[in-house]
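Hi V.,

You were right to ask for the full record rather than a summary. Here it is.
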Amino acid sequence: MTCIRSLKPNVTREQAIRQFSPRGPTALLRNVAFGRLRSVAELYIPFRLFRVQITNRGVSEERLVALDAVSGTLDLYQFDHSPADTETIWLETRNHLLPELPDAIAAEQVVAKLRRVLYSRGFFKMRGLQITAQPLEDDLHIPYWLGFRGSDARARVSVIDAVRRSLEGAKVRRLVETWLTTNG
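Predicted structure:
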């Protein structure tokens, strides 16, 4: 098993099970369509931290963001400060993806993602926009809960971000499904 550093989760296993198993008419519909909840597992996805410098209209600001270090396709995580020891844990687990993205490509993707976000807030508000991203020393894992539904012949996975307490969409599900099928 590998020892990794992760943000502390805000969702326990029991809370994840409750979130994967809503009550009422929607639960019945979900169980008919996708099958009942069969299993819940934790998973940790590595994110690379970057210190980003953004200059627009001669005004500079600094941000701390993290990009998934597997494919760079997930949404950025933003931090007010570098996660302190009290906000992280060290644990041994096999349930983690391996970082595969080189720093140079990851930095390019961070810049591109931030540029899209800034332009979406108002293209005409941008003057002399410059963005630089410097990778920081270590990776940080983000905890997720996986919920497996379905029958023996067909399974479906749902994903909860255990820090933000939110159900994740297709990007994270695809990343997890790829990991499961190549490492299972």
